Amino acid sequence: MFISDYAKFLGSPLRRFRSEADGVAAIEGAVVLSMLAGVFVSMADVSVQAYTQNKLSNALRASVQYIANEGKDLGAAKQLFLDSYGSESAGFSTVLQCSCPQKRSQYKIDTTQQGQSDPQIHKPMNVESASVQDKNGAWGQCKADCGGETVVKYLKLSGNAKIRKITQNELVEVTSSYSVRVE
Question: Taking a C-beta distance cutoff of 8 angstroms, is the pair 61, 134 a contact?
Fold first, then answer.
């Protein structure tokens, strides 16, 4: 046998295989459907995380609104958060932050928008004392030296919740926070 005879012998089944189209659509469909399933599950993960983030943000807004309207009871603010979130599994925390007003020219920052200017910016610093409030509901004291200027106090409210990702079966923490001026 010559090489050409081998080519004819092997070539005929290969030619027949190239000309056959049976099952190609099934294979292509399986590949495409598996990719679409992966995209669908990933979208579900992102959607659950976005929904939880939005839910936390809305629940925190209720607490911020309470504090902004002269509310002083942090227990009531926490309960508002938990009631708005709808689950006891969410975490709630508060931190009192202090800042000193500084002249903008010292930092050479221009944040003027639409022709309006704010002559002061605030340089934040965390409170060194452990208590956010005292027994009478007064906000904690800041240990900050602002060169004779009034210290500005902000209450940072934070919420967090844990969700389980579908794709990796792991817990992910979703957080949200707002700051509100208290004095």
Answer: no
pLDDT in tens, 128-171: 434 566 666 677 777 666 777 777 788 888 999 999 888 788 88
User: Parallel, antiparallel, or unpaired for β 120-126 and 171-181?
Assistant: unpaired
Look up residue 167 and give its two tokens. 């794709």
Q: How far is CA 135 from CA 74, 80, 132, in A?
A: 11, 20, 10
Q: Which domain holds residue 100?
A: 24-181
Residue 11 covered by a domain: no
Number of structural domains, the chain?
1
Contact 83, 165 (CB under 8 A): no
Q: 0.70 exceeded by the pTM? A: no
Examine residue 110 and state whether it is found in any structural domain, yes or no: yes
Residue with tokens 């009531």: 76
DSSP code of residue 141: P
| H/E run at residue 106 | helix 104-107
- Sequence-separated (6 or more) residues with CB below 8 Å from residue 146: 100, 101
SS3 helix, strand, coil % of the chain, rounded to 5? 45, 25, 30
CB 158 within 8 A of CB 95: yes
pLDDT on residue 145: 67
In a domain, 5, yes or no: no
